[in-house]
Amino acid sequence: MFADVPLKLLNKTNLKRWTSRLKAEFYETQRVSVWKCTDLKLYSEPGETEGDFRVRIRQAVSEQRDLDVEKLRKKFGSKIATLQGRIETAEAAVKREESQYAKAKNDSYLSIGSTLLGALFGRKIASRTNVSKATTSARSMGRASEQGDDVVRAKEKVSTLKQDKDALEKELNEEVKSLEEHWDPEKLGLEELEVTPRKSDIRTDEVQLVWTPWLVDETGIAEPAFNSGE
């Protein structure tokens, strides 16, 4: 003989009210702890430990580091390539100036030699021809001197451009090193967050009555009259 089911359990209004209370219980008591990596904007999965999360973000860190380094190399690469082009142009200018300087020196030497020979073996040392040759020789020496100055300036330009390139490459290496230190998985800060549910996210199935028979013996001790499967 079984006891009657309490009437309040058969009332549909009560079942709806208990459903609402169940949702409220979930909202007030249920919490989920997750780990957050701010730098990567990643969150751990529910139930994932800090250790497991760090293992997972190592791959993400490696990919992000490689991406940032590649962007950095592209940024500096165009500037370095431009400087290298200017260096090659300046070095070509040095060779051209050196060639012109060598020719100017040879021309001046020939002009001076011709003037001296004319002065030594000519009939009149102060003749108009000898004076003209001396003037030409002086001009040749002046042009050679100017060409020598052009060579010096061209070499100085090459030296300056190479210094600029070295400084740029040094800056690139320093920024790459800084990125690698920033994306060290062991140095990434993790924050533990407690996530509370939103009422709109809580869903419950319809609350229903589940009846399980129990037996009460003569001493008043109750025991289940069913097999739970355990």
Note the main attributes of this structure.
single chain, 230 residues, mainly alpha, Helix Hairpins, 2 domains, 3-stranded antiparallel sheet, 3 helices, 63% helix, 9% strand
Give a written overview of the molecule.
This protein is mostly helical. The protein has two domains: 1-29 and 206-230, no CATH class; 31-195, Helix Hairpins (Orthogonal Bundle), CATH 1.10.287. It is 63% helix and 9% strand. The chain has three helices and five strands. It has helices at 12-29, 50-121, 128-182, and strands at residues 32-37, 42-43, 190-195, 214-216, 222-224. Strands 2-1-3 form a three-stranded antiparallel sheet, covered by helices on one side. Strands 4-5 form a two-stranded antiparallel sheet. Strand 1 (32-37) and strand 2 (42-43) form a beta hairpin. Helix 2 (50-121) packs antiparallel against helix 3.
**CATH topology description of the largest domain:** Helix Hairpins
Q: Major sheet: size, sense and barrel closure?
A: 3 strands, antiparallel
> Major sheet: order of its strands?
2-1-3
Radius of gyration: 47 Å
Content-based structural category? mainly alpha
Beta-strand share of residues: 5-15%
Straight-line distance between termini: 26 Å
* CATH top level class name of the largest domain: Mainly Alpha
Tally of DSSP β-strands: 5
| The number of domains | 2
Enumerate the spans where pLDDT stays under 50 for 5 or more consecutive residues: 109-138
**Overall form:** rod-shaped
Mean pLDDT: 76
